[in-house]
Amino acid sequence: MSSVILRSDFKGLSPAEFFYRNREIAGFSNPVRALYQTIRELLENSLDATELYGILPTIEIDIKIDEEHSDRVIITVKDNGIGVPIEHVPYVFGSVFYGSKYDLKQSRGIFGLGIKMAVLYSQLTTGKPIFVRSSTPDSPIVHEEEIMIDISKNMPIIVSQRIFKKRRKEHGTEVRITIEGNWAMAKRRVEEYVRRTAMIAPYAEIRLRGPDLELEFKRSTRILPNPPRLGKPHPYGVDIELLKMLISDCDANMTLKEFLLKKFEGTGERTIATFLRWSKLNGNAKVKKLSIKDLDQLSKAMRGFSKWRRPRPIPLSPLGEKLLKEGVKKILKPEYISAVTRKASSYSGHPFIVEVAIAYGGEIPVVDKPILYRFANKIPLLYDEGVDVARKVVDSIDWGYYKVKFPAPLAVIVHICSTKIPFKGVGKEAVADVPEVEREIANAIKDCARRLRRHISYIEKIHEIKRRKITILKYLPEVTRALNEITGVSEKTIKEKLIAILEKDLKSRGEAKIGKEAKTKSV
């Protein structure tokens, strides 16, 4: 019996080549989704380049159909952000996994992948480089570059580079890219995405121009949310590799006790002492001398200890109730709105904050179930709503208990911000059913719904009083005539007296109070 040995040639893939071969992972599966994804990535980068640095965003999005190729779309996005230093431009736009978003703090992007996927898709479908024009506030120059990606090496190729002296004080970045896209099919999705972005960023001014579309969302406030600050990992989220990376930055004499105090969130002298007694670990051991076995024991003990403090929300940047209401009011134009920002919570050691707003009436369409607007780290989520935890929670609410009878003009806005959003898949369009997150969303919605119930009760009582008044006034002429015949007093005098009595009675029933409260609780 003979055996056959099959030989294979083994080789590795660069990150750029991997995503080139598997572009569907990043949302570039077809011309419609790719066009939407490219605009999304560019817009999000522009917002992060402005608001994180205390700059009120002014962003222009221009979309044109290539005159020579009707299946190609030219996308230009310009912002007034912090700009990209000239030495970093080739790598920011031409090297997968190179970026500024790898610190432990909230940001719209995570991997530094999105814009590079757009460049790869452009190369794949049109063969054209990306054009970048940028300048930082302190730089005396403006630089322009055309960049492509060497897929096999995951390195940038600088096609051209030009440098100009600034003629005026300016800063920001302009990006132009040509891809294969279907504008007719993607238009509605792009328009909705930009509209929802304007809702979650009311401090931004966004202009969108397309072949048959022109939208402008002016900023309705000049207040920016507090920017996130750099955070530390929490003990609940550690593993052996994280411990090794943190230890590599320690000096040779750092002890385990010092390591736990300085490198982690949710620790303190008393907590560390309790942990060391509980785990029976030596707090004076030098962390540089810990073996893999020791690190395995340490990581398991840290995840198993139940008395760590919750992580602080310093790496997070929630919108806040005032800005959230401002954004919803600007886009949805409701009759009534309530909003709540929950206190920080955590799952698996990752801090998160849930914000919810409920909008009712006004220009909101009457629908059979609540309209849901989902956001994660200020990013609108448009796809996969049916499997999102927010949809599950909204559908589980007994809205009748809160006096909402469908069909009704009701919209629910859910925003989750975290250093690690628990997405269901690589598409990052649906949040998973994490119990802690689900509980916070449910509590926030119920809090807003209770306020809505009070508002609806006020409105119902006002309407009841008005109906009572109309009914009485309807029969007032007959009553005055009858009383005139009985008493001989003039009808005018009787009418004035009866109206005065009526007004006094209605006020005693709370009309004035209800009207005032309803007015203060509505938009």
Sketch the topology as an H/E string, one letter per element.
HHEEHHEEEEHEEHHHHHEEEEEHEHHH
| Structural class determined from secondary elements | alpha+beta
Estimated radius of gyration: 30 Å
Task: Provide the CATH architecture of the largest domain.
Answer: 2-Layer Sandwich
Number of contiguous helices: 14
**Spatial gap, N to C terminus:** 85 Å
As residue ranges, the low-confidence spans are: 511-523
CATH superfamily of the largest domain: Histidine kinase-like ATPase, C-terminal domain
Kindly report the CATH topology of the largest domain.
Heat Shock Protein 90
Fraction of helical residues: 25-40%
Q: Report the mean per-residue pLDDT as an integer.
A: 86
Strand order of the largest sheet: 5-4-3-6-2-1-7-8
Shape: globular
The biggest beta sheet, please? 8 strands, mixed
How many domain regions? Answer: 4
- What is the number of E strands? 14
Describe the structure in your own words.
The chain is of the alpha+beta class. The chain folds into four domains: 15-217, Heat Shock Protein 90 (2-Layer Sandwich); 235-304, Helicase, Ruva Protein, domain 3, CATH 1.10.8.50; 321-445, Ribosomal Protein S5, domain 2, CATH 3.30.230.10; 455-521, no CATH class. Helices cover 40% and strands 19% of the residues. It has 14 helices and 14 strands. The protein has helices spanning 15-21, 31-51, 89-94, 114-125, 183-200, 240-248, 256-263, 269-279, 292-304, 321-332, 389-396, 435-487, 491-508, 511-521; strands at residues 58-65, 72-78, 130-135, 141-150, 155-165, 172-180, 205-210, 213-217, 336-341, 345-347, 350-360, 371-376, 379-381, 410-418. The strands form two sheets. Strands 5-4-3-6-2-1-7-8 form an eight-stranded mixed sheet. Strands 9, 10, 11, 12, 13 and 14 form a six-stranded mixed sheet that branches. Strand 4 and strand 5 form a beta hairpin. Helix 2 packs parallel to helix 5 (183-200), helix 11 (389-396) runs parallel beside helix 12 (435-487) and helix 12 (435-487) runs antiparallel to helix 13. The longest helix has 53 residues, at 435-487. The N and C termini lie far apart (85 Å). Mean pLDDT is 86; it is low at 511-523.
